[in-house]
Amino acid sequence: MPEHELWLTAQFNEHLAGVANAILGIFNMHANDPSHPWENWIVCELVVMAFLMILAAIVRSGLSADKPGKLQMAFEWIYGFISDNAHQAGIHHPGPFVPYFGTIFLFILSMNLIGIIPAFESPTMSPSVPAGLAICTFIYYNFFGIKAHGVGGHLAHFAGPVRFGSIVANLFIMLLMVPIELISHMARPLSLTVRLYGNMFGGEQVTNVFLSLTYLVIPAIFMALHVFVALVQTYVFTLLTMIYVGLATAREH
Fold first, then answer.
1. Scanning 5, 141, 143, 189, which has the fewest C-beta atoms within 10 Å of its C-beta?
2. CA-based nearest residue to 126, from 115, 117, 136
3. Which position has the higher pLDDT, 30 or 129?
4. How far is CA 23 from the centre of its chain?
5. How far from each other are the two terminal CA atoms of the chain, in whole angstroms?
6. Residues 13 and 62 in one domain
């Protein structure tokens, strides 16, 4: 049995180990321990996904233009908050992008906060989860950059915004800027991953240490700090995603 296996993870490994091994087999992958293929971060991530799907179904079933409920009003506020921040990040028409921004915001926030519940731990403590989200964001903003400008126009961003009348000067700038821009773009997923993973892992460890040493007042303070870190890191990840999309889809004037 893996060390620090959660109760729910143990249930998955006991009853659904064959399902996990079959899924891994489709991709020609194998678990280190076939009898325990489920890991804590996967199970907790599935719990978060199920929670958000149920929450979305509840909100959708009660939608009303005349008498919106408190839950609907909360989601409308989140929509407005994300839309306003996307506009401030440089996206002049953020409507088409708000669903993605809202999804990653709620998904990351829920995964960050689930670690407060004693029976669970934050999936973002595992580097695989932030890395997957960072790769999705990388693909997303490049896709819409190509959609907005075409392949050639999107690749032209890598040559820098400055253009000169001399062909030699332009060639020199391109040779200088293209490697810098490539490194910058490739570093973005790494930066998103390390920032989210490092802060959540560190915050979780500090909280667990103080929970094991003291009771009531001190743990409450560090749990509040954990919530604050969870909110900040969710906002930073979402804001950087907005900035990357804004840069990729912006048109030069």
1. 143
2. 115
3. 129
4. 23
5. 60
6. no
